[in-house]
Amino acid sequence: MKSENDELTSISEQAAQWWVVFRGNAASAADKREFAQWVARAPERIEAYLRVARVHAALSRADLQWPKTSAAALIREALVAATEPTPLRVQQIRPERAPRRRLPALLGVAVMASLLVAVGLGWHFLSLSQHYSTGFGEQLSVVLADGSRVTLNTGSRIEVRLRADQRVVNLLQGEALFEVAHDPKRPFDVHVGETILRDVGTRFDVDQRPQRTVVTVVEGRVAIVATPSHAGGGASLPELSASDRAIIDNQGSVKLQQGVTEAEAIAWMRRSLVFHRRPMAEVAEEFNRYNRRRIEIRSPALQAQEITGTFRSDDPTSFLAFIASIPGVHVNEDGSGGYVVTLEESVP
Length: 348
Fold this sequence. Notes:
By secondary structure, the protein is of the alpha+beta class. The chain has helices spanning 6-21, 29-40, 43-59, 71-81, 103-113, 122-126, 262-265, 280-290, 300-304, 316-324; strands spanning 130-133, 140-143, 149-152, 157-162, 167-173, 175-179, 188-192, 195-199, 203-208, 212-219, 221-226, 239-241, 245-249, 254-257, 272-279, 295-297, 306-312, 329-333, 339-343.
């Protein structure tokens, strides 16, 4: 059994969602056509339904003893017992060849097996939120049940809730790259504080900082649905296209940049940092995300000075060597493993 494989786990969860669609035999003709197309794409999807059928058969046994604990209590216990989720490894595995089966028979199995959901737990568990996080210096890529992929940068946390009519991700901390599976029936919303970003199938990066949120679109389009200053309506918010970047401050003001390259937007995935006319204070802050030996720039003039360059995120010494070459700049250790950068006041 290959339950540890990302792709198969995702298919199992997608199959469970189809059971909800077929609950009560009320699925539309369009639902049935879409289901037939979904199940025909890969043999492991057929196997997923057969596994559910076997589970249903086991649950239907007359001698089965159900626990007296209520469904709500079971859910609460599951949430309390849950720890950090096992990271989903990103890999490609060739599916095993499975015997061919007739689709009409599968549709019948799906309707029959949908009785499993009627025990009262199926939909509750589908709508439960999932949490993913990374520690200092870590990165993690997860494939969600809808086929979307989220890659977390260092020190990041997200909460995911997938429903039948909506997909919602709360970016609680840090940075994430979203590669959204196209599904016009279910909007994909990313919440960052009071800011809401909406997408139906694209690739974009969201970086949350204490004073601002930076949204960069790599492919497709992303709508800014709400910001703190637009909670009550007012002027329309911009829609971002590929190579657009929006910097949203804590008051909801939006500053737009264009022509942001993919290399700059997702350099962090390659453990690189690409800067184009970025204030030195922001560059130092970026290095501090990846390294425990912190860099502090004490001169206001240096903090505002813009620089352009490409560095390794785990090599702050190359950045320090670069700024040490500026006339009047001094780099010293602070006594606790970090660095202090100062500028002689007499140097213009």
